Amino acid sequence: MKDNPLKVVIPMAGLGTRLRPHTWSKPKQLVSVAGKTVLNHLIDSLSTYPGFVDIELVNIVGYLSDQIEDCIRTSYPDLQSSFVLQENPRGQSHAILLAKELISGPTLVVFADTLIETDLSFLDGESSGAVVWVKEVPDPRRFGVVKLNESGQVTRLIEKPDSTEDNLVVVGFYYFKEGEQLIAAIEEQLKKDVKLKGEYFLADAINIMLENGLIMRPEMVDVWLDAGTPQTLLETNRYLLEHGHDNSKEATQRAEFQAVPPVFVHPSARIRNAVVGPFVSIGAECQIQNCLVKNSIFEDQARADGVILEDSLIGRNAELQGRWKIINAGDDTKLTV
Fold first, then answer.
1. Residue 202 and residue 186: Cα distance in Å, rounded?
2. Mean per-residue pLDDT for 264-292?
């Protein structure tokens, strides 16, 4: 084990209201996409770090936290994991501060409602005091952006800028060479009561660090996936299935149904007399028959019989039952059912 292993802080105490009704019964990080939970995809994306087996996960949890703890301990039993409860959320910085006793040395802060594709192998040799991952977008006004100087170093983070001049959007992925410096800045932020709309945002703590001389550079990413709403979750599912997360080869060999690639079909799912795909993910122990399904996600143990679905999210253990219709339609009838 490394003398000073990388700490990975994952704040995830939010209620996930944009994904209701799915988040009434599970945290938004445990919604499935392309055969795994969003949280599993996030943690797996850290495997490009050379010392991945030695990283320490610092999970800031809240609503239904037992499900997150069970997921991590089951999926990653060999990773050291801590769980800190944020009972009364007051923002990102507040969440991180609750784990101050666990944060020291090299630290990643990653938010679990977005996924990126990045290679972390450079971190062991990183010379800057901090790194912020960014993506160039045409219109950054809905996001937070970084402002750079002539040397390409970050001078400030700006939330929801008025113009499109600075278009490098922050994607919710940060590295700090010294986690203690981050904690000190957050404590100063709370002491000065620097917040936005009643919440303490991490960007303001980083701006304090920059004012105190922090050298931070941007790291560009090409792929930034959102998993925060039903629509963007389906878009993320589609992208992941198109880029190596499908098992279409195995699915198309099953004779009891027709799979239209790309799809992910869990081996334990029972499907018959159905057409599934494209862009469909079906979880463990699902039961689907007499259905047409495309661009949809079925979570574990969901069941459907006699339905036609598109652009749909079906939660764990949900049951859908369709009925055949009898229609007597005369000439020139126009009918949508």
1. 8
2. 96
Task: Report the distance separating Cα 141 and Cα 160, nearest Å.
Answer: 5
One-letter-per-residue 3-state SS of 134-145: EEECCCCCCCEE
User: How far is residue 283's CA from residue 260's CA, in Å, rounded to a whole number?
Assistant: 16
Cβ count near 9 (within 10 Å): 25
Contact 42, 80 (CB under 8 A): no
CA end-to-end span of the chain? 61
| Residue tagged 């495309």 (tokens) | 294
Half-sphere exposure of 59 (CA within 13 A, CB side): 24
Query: Which CA distances in Å does 310 have to 67, 141, 184, 231, 243?
Result: 29, 31, 49, 12, 21
In 193-330, alpha helices (H): 202-211, 230-242, 248-251
Neighbours of 292 (CB within 10 A): 13
Residue 276 has pLDDT above 90, yes or no: yes
Contacts of 197 (CB under 8 A, 6+ apart): none
Distance in angstroms (rounded) separating the CA atoms of residues 288 and 27 = 25
- Count of CB atoms within 10 A of residue 21's CB? 9
User: pLDDT by residue (tens digit) across 211-247?
Assistant: 999 999 999 998 999 888 899 999 999 999 999 999 9
Neighbours of 65 (CB within 10 A): 19
- H/E stretch holding 189 reads helix 179-192
The model carries a pTM of 0.89
Opening angle at CA 67, ends 77 and 296, nearest 5: 105
| Cα–Cα distance measured from residue 92 to residue 170, given in angstroms and rounded to the nearest whole number | 14
Residue 293: both structure tokens together: 């399904």
Structure tokens at 318: 């949900």
Give the containing element (helix H, strand E) for 97: helix 92-97
Question: Residue 285 in 3-state DSSP?
Answer: coil
> Which residues, other chains included, contact 62 with Cβ-Cβ below 8 Å and sequence gap of 6+?
12, 13, 14, 15, 85, 86, 87, 89
Cis peptide bond upstream of 21, omega within 30: yes
